[in-house]
Design a protein that fits this description.
By secondary structure, the chain is mainly alpha-helical. It has a domain of about 80 residues. The protein contains four helices and no strands. About 0% of the residues are buried.
Length: about 160
C-alpha cells in the first residue's frame, strides 16, 4: 500500500470512529435525560403533582432516544452475509429438529405397540393362570369327594386286621 491509500483508509476509519463515538455520546446523553425525567416523574407522583407536561417531556425524550437509535443503527448492522449464514444455520437446525421429532414420534409409536402387545400377553397369562387355579381347585374337590366315597365303602378296620 502506498501512503495515499493508507491515508484514505485511515481517514475513513477515523471518520467512522468519530461518528460512532458521537452516536455513543448522544445516546448516553439521551438515556440520561430519559432517566432524569423518570426520576422527576417519580418524585411528582409521590408529591401528587404530576402534570401532563411531565408526561409530554418524557414522551419527547423517549422519541428522541428512539430516533437516535434508529438513525445510527446502520453503523452497528451486521453484514448481509452473516445474516444469510445465520438464517441458513437456523433453517438447518430447524430441519434437524423436525427430523428428531419425527424419529421420536416413530419410536414412541413403536414402543406403544410393544407395550400394548405385552399387556395383551400379560392378560392372557393371567387368564390362563386363573383357569389353572380353578381346574386345580375342581380336581382337589373331586379328590376329596372320591376319598369320602372310598372311605365309606371300605371298612378300614377290616382292611388293616389280619
Amino acid at each position: 500500500m502506498n501512503s495515499l491509500e493508507q491515508t484514505v483508509v485511515f481517514r475513513n476509519f477515523a471518520k467512522k470512529l468519530f461518528i460512532v463515538g458521537n452516536v455513543y455520546s448522544k445516546t448516553i446523553k439521551a438515556r440520561e435525560d430519559v432517566h432524569k425525567q423518570m426520576q422527576k416523574m417519580k418524585k411528582s407522583i409521590i408529591r401528587l403533582n404530576l402534570s401532563y407536561s411531565d408526561v409530554d417531556r418524557l414522551n419527547h425524550k423517549v422519541e428522541k432516544l428512539i430516533e437516535l437509535e434508529r438513525r445510527y443503527s446502520r453503523f452497528f448492522k451486521t453484514p448481509d452475509t452473516e445474516v444469510k449464514e445465520l438464517k441458513d444455520h437456523i433453517e438447518y437446525l430447524e430441519n434437524q429438529l423436525s427430523l428428531e421429532r419425527k424419529e421420536k414420534r416413530q419410536l414412541l409409536e413403536e414402543e406403544e405397540v410393544k407395550i400394548n402387545q405385552m399387556k395383551e400377553h400379560m392378560n392372557a397369562v393371567k387368564n390362563h393362570a386363573k383357569q389353572l387355579l380353578l381346574d386345580r381347585e375342581r380336581r382337589n374337590d373331586r379328590m376329596k369327594d372320591l376319598e369320602k366315597k372310598i372311605s365309606k365303602r371300605v371298612d378300614i378296620k377290616s382292611y388293616y386286621t389280619f
